[in-house]
Amino acid sequence: MKKKLAAMVMGLALTTSGAMASEYTMRSGDQLSIVVTQEPSISTSVNASGTMTPYLVRPDGRVSIPLAGEINANGMTVAQFTEELRTRLSKYIVDPDVAVNVVKLGTVRVYVFGEVNRPGAFELTKGHTVIDAIGAASGFNWDTAKKKIYLIRQDRPKELIAINLNRMLETGDMSENYEMREGDMLYLTKNGRISFSRDIAPIFSAVYSITEAKKNLDD
């Protein structure tokens, strides 16, 4: 049964990544090629050596484009972003012809520790969910308490999020398959509890401050 569930995690990671590839939503770190036929000065430039200077989705999720101003691209599909850019440019250009492509995907660096086969830090690209992170860590192991997995947000360590992986895999309900953000931590426990001094502090003290999480982790 455990082998079957582990295989399901890996399968789901591949499936969700494939689905996101067809309906990709933009995020910080993405590099964009933008072409505006009527206004070459706005278009992505290419130097003499053929190297392109793309537009970058900044850490705050925004892209700054001449005439259009700043557009919050975070969570938009390419089609939605293109339409927003076209709408803004239409104030200055008659029927603007706009083409947008993601030329390089942004990554999200997350940490997966505890009862997984390959603990550590991972750069997630197409898929940034809990399932994707577990898949990147080569799945859970025999000792994992699959009903008590914890997601800890880097910016809100007091708000520990408990995840029931068993329920997710057995029912197909992906409501707990949360989107992971830069610096987030996923911890798979052995017995459903986390000891701050034993499990967390030795690993994460060098990564980011989690002093505020201590009380919650040990309660």
Q: What is the strand and helix layout of this fold?
A:
Blueprint: H1 2-22, E1 31-36, E2 45-46, E3 52-53, E4 55-56, E5 62-65, E6 69-72, H2 78-89, E7 98-104, E8 108-114, E9 120-124, H3 130-136, E10 149-152, E11 161-163, H4 165-171, E12 185-188, H5 196-204, H6 214-218
Parallel strand pairs: 8-12
Antiparallel strand pairs: 1-4, 1-7, 2-3, 5-6, 8-9, 10-11, 10-12
Helix pairs in contact: 1-3
What this model shows, in words?
The structure is a single chain. The chain has helices at about 1-20, 80-90, 130-135, 165-170, 195-205, 215-219, and strands at about 30-35, 45, 50-55, 55, 60-65, 70, 100-105, 110-115, 120-125, 150, 160-165, 185-190. A hairpin with a 5-residue loop joins strand 2 and strand 3 (about 50-55). The chain has 6 helices and 12 strands. The strands form 4 sheets. A 5-stranded mixed beta sheet has the order 9-8-12-10-11, with helices on one face. It has a 3-stranded antiparallel beta sheet with strand order 4-1-7, with helices on one face. Mean pLDDT is about 80; it is low at about 1-10 and about 15-20.
Sketch the topology as an H/E string, one letter per element: HEEEEEEHEEEHEEHEHH
Outline type: elongated
User: How helix-rich are the residues, as a percent range?
Assistant: 25-40%
Structural class of the secondary structure composition?
alpha+beta
Q: What kind of sheet is the major sheet?
A: 5 strands, mixed
Number of helical elements: 6
**Which residue ranges are poorly predicted, with pLDDT under 50 across at least 5 consecutive positions?**
1-8, 13-22
Question: What is the residue-averaged pLDDT?
Answer: 80
Strand adjacency order, main sheet: 9-8-12-10-11
